[in-house]
């Protein structure tokens, strides 16, 4: 059963004849209790009038520009009454007093319950690459934006405990390794002295420069950044929990960019500080003598690279039958050959079943053909993947569907099942990469601003910043074989690259996969120095629908590593002269 009630302007203090500057609902809209109905603006402040209870909006009696005072009827509301109850729904009700809110810059306290209360056009949850990009783009497109981040630094995982600190350390690690390798070219350095505090400071300085830059960029754009944990309390509002208070923010549209967290394996002794995740590894507390890395994916191998270069004896254990599962084996091979020689052990198709803290280390039990039954390490790094944070911010209270794994499904415009709530980044699915998050973020912000934007990237490149680097984009051979997709392949060994040899490196390889009929480039894989820089050309080629002839006829500067893309395409075309690879008949 439903009953009609009239919602009128509540006590708004001394103010009379206050202008209606926004009508936020229309006939037929469903509203929750506390959802904003209209916004009023006096010469002192703006204030929103919330719904006194949930219901469906009937006739709206006010329009923008009207002047209203206490008691002016705003709209009629159809409210549900529980059948069988005798509870009387009042004929007419005033909305609870809404707190005056300065329209864009500050929050004030509500009369009812002292909960600070704001309203905003676009609310963004999460200050990582997805969140800050969405917030900045939306602000650039004219939206009033609030960005809520639970930590006191913007930048999310990527800037604080992911992409950037890991690359700052990997740069140092690669320089150490390359300096040592120069001995083969007649220049020998002494064993490096490592000042761990300084190295940590270097990493933190890089992170600080970038996160500080974000604060400045937010200010310039008038994006209000609020520190606190946001939880959806309705489809149009979040509660932001701060240290000793909470704020309610009402929004017209929202973008959820709450990211992901490290996956844990149940039963391990997480209260022991010697068991760390990637964040613990990046904290660089010490240089352990022996470290076990559980997980031979990109993050595990990058961290292994850092610690190995600093002098740690590293063992890697991986459940799958190859490192970097999903990456083509021929791309992984040069990396594996190199680290086989550097690391203490690499155990594939093996797993850790138990970890027990002991005085002198963490005792680890293995299961696998080549593993010992157990061994003891100074540190154990768990790097077995990441899980989305979809279940941790009340999404479902706002009506947003979260799947069993914690991902929030979205359409190609980044819209969730709730049309005014969008989601971007790690929280919407694989691949969990910062450059995917930022592209999705721009789509969401542009759609909110009324643009016809879609996430229609054909490909998303992946990079392992190991030594050598591995990068791939588009179709992989592994995927093509699994899906039965026809392809042809042409590859160029870097042993024939003048630039690679002059850098003292010959283990690299560039391969191009292309359509056998049209010769359109389907995928490119590169292993070797700076593969991550080189792969962008391949991504562009695929986006532009280039074929192998386009790549072969594009003049690349000599001598560069980029030539290897040119040469692999020439192999496909049968025009290569730098190696002997006549065209297949
Ligand atoms: C060690 C490591 C190295 C990596 N290296 C790379 C790399 O080289 N290249 C690459 O592309 N990717 C890399 N990644 C992955 C990359 O960091 C993520 O893909 C990227 O950060 C995802 O961005 P996001 O905005 O979706 O989420 P995040 O960066 O996770 O940001 C989400 C933010 O939301 C905040 N948040 C969560 N819940 C709430 C809430 N309820 N209220 C308020 N705030 C909330 C979090 O505090 C966080 O700041 C790496 C990751 C790790 C761990």
Architecture per CATH nomenclature, i.e. the level-2 architecture of the largest domain: 3-Layer(bba) Sandwich
* CATH-defined fold name of the largest domain: FAD/NAD(P)-binding domain
Would you identify the CATH H-level superfamily of the largest domain?
A: FAD/NAD(P)-binding domain
CATH class categorisation of the largest domain: Alpha Beta
Would you count the extended β strands for me?
33
* Overall average residue pLDDT: 91
Q: Which structural class should the secondary elements be placed in?
A: alpha/beta
Looking at how many chains there are and whether they match, the oligomeric state comes to single chain
What is bound: which ligands? Answer: flavin-adenine dinucleotide
Please tell me the total number of domains. Answer: 4
Q: Whole-number radius of gyration?
A: 29 Å
Entry keywords:
585 residues; alpha/beta; OB fold (Dihydrolipoamide Acetyltransferase, E2P); FAD/NAD(P)-binding domain; 4 domains; 8-stranded mixed sheet; 5-stranded mixed sheet; 33 strands; globular; binds flavin-adenine dinucleotide
Describe the structure.
By secondary structure, the chain is α/β, with parallel strands linked by helices. It folds into four domains: 2-94, Beta Barrel (OB fold (Dihydrolipoamide Acetyltransferase, E2P)); 101-262 and 386-457, FAD/NAD(P)-binding domain, CATH 3.50.50.60; 275-384, FAD/NAD(P)-binding domain (3-Layer(bba) Sandwich), CATH 3.50.50; 462-573, FAD/NAD-linked reductase, C-terminal dimerisation domain (Enolase-like, domain 1, 2-Layer Sandwich). Strands 11, 12, 13, 14, 15, 16, 17 and 28 form an eight-stranded mixed beta sheet that branches. Strand 32 (509-514) and strand 33 (521-527) form a beta hairpin. The longest helix has 25 residues, at 196-220. The chain is globular. The model is unreliable at 82-112 (pLDDT under 50). The structure holds flavin-adenine dinucleotide. Flavin-adenine dinucleotide (FAD) binds next to helix 1, strand 13, helix 2, helix 3 and strand 15.
């Amino acid at each position: 059963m439903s009953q009609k009630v009239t919602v009128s302007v509540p006590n708004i203090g001394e103010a009379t004849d206050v202008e209606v500057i926004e009508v936020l609902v229309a006939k037929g809209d469903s509203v929750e209790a506390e959802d904003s109905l209209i916004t009023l603006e006096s010469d002192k402040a703006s204030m929103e009038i919330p719904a006194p209870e949930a219901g469906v909006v009937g006739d709206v009696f006010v329009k923008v520009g009207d002047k209203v005072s206490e008691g002016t009827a705003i709209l009629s509301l159809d409210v549900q009454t529980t059948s069988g109850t005798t509870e009387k729904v009042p004929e007419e009700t005033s909305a609870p007093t809404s707190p005056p809110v300065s329209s864009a810059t500050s929050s004030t306290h509500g009369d009812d319950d002292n909960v600070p209360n704001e309203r905003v056009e676009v609310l963004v949850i999460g200050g990582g690459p997805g969140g800050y990009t969405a917030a900045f783009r939306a602000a650039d497109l004219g939206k009033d934006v609030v960005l809520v981040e639970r930590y006191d630094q913007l930048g999310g995982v990527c800037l604080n405990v992911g992409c950037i600190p890991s690359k700052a350390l990997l740069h140092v690690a690669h320089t150490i390794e390359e300096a040592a390798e120069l001995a083969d070219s007649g220049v020998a350095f002494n064993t490096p002295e490592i000042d761990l505090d300084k190295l940590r400071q270097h990493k933190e300085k890089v992170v600080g420069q970038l996160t500080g830059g974000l604060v400045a960029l937010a200010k310039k754009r008038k994006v209000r950044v609020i520190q606190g944990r946001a939880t959806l309390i309705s489809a149009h509002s979040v509660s932001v929990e701060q240290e000793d208070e909470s704020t309610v923010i009402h929004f017209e549209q929202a973008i959820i960019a709450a990211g992901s967290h490290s996956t844990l394996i149940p039963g391990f002794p997480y209260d022991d500080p010697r068991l760390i995740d990637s964040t613990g590894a990046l904290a660089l507390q010490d240089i352990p003598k022996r470290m076990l890395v559980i997980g031979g994916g990109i993050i595990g191998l990058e961290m292994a690279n850092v610690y190995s270069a600093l002098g740690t004896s590293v063992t890697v254990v991986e459940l799958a039958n190859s490192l970097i599962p999903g990456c083509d084996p021929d791309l992984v091979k040069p990396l594996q050959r190199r680290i086989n020689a550097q690391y203490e052990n690499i155990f594939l198709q093996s797993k850790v079943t138990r970890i027990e803290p002991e005085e002198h280390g963490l005792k680890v039990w293995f299961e696998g053909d080549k593993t010992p039954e157990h061994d003891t390490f100074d540190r154990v790094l768990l790097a077995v993947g990441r899980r989305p944070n979809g279940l941790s911010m009340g999404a479902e209270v706002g009506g947003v569907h979260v799947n069993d794994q914690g991902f929030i499904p979205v359409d190609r415009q980044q819209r969730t099942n709730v049309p005014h709530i969008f989601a971007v980044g790690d929280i919407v699915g694989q691949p969990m990469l910062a450059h995917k998050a930022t592209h999705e973020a721009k789509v969401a912000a542009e759609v909110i601003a009324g643009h016809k934007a879609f996430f229609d990237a054909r490909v998303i490149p992946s990079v392992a910043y190991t030594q050598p680097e591995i990068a791939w984009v588009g179709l992989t051979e592994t995927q093509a074989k699994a899906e039965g997709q026809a392809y042809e392949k042409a590859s160029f060994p870097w042993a024939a690259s003048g630039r690679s040899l002059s850098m003292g490196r010959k283990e690299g390889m560039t391969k191009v996969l292309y359509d056998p009929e049209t010769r359109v480039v389907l995928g490119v894989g590169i292993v070797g120095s700076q593969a991550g820089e080189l792969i962008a050309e391949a991504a562009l080629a695929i986006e532009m629908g280039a074929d192998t002839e386009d790549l072969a006829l594009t003049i690349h500067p000599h001598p560069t590593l980029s030539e290897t893309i040119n040469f692999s395409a020439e192999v496909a075309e049968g025009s290569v002269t730098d190696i002997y690879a006549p065209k297949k008949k």
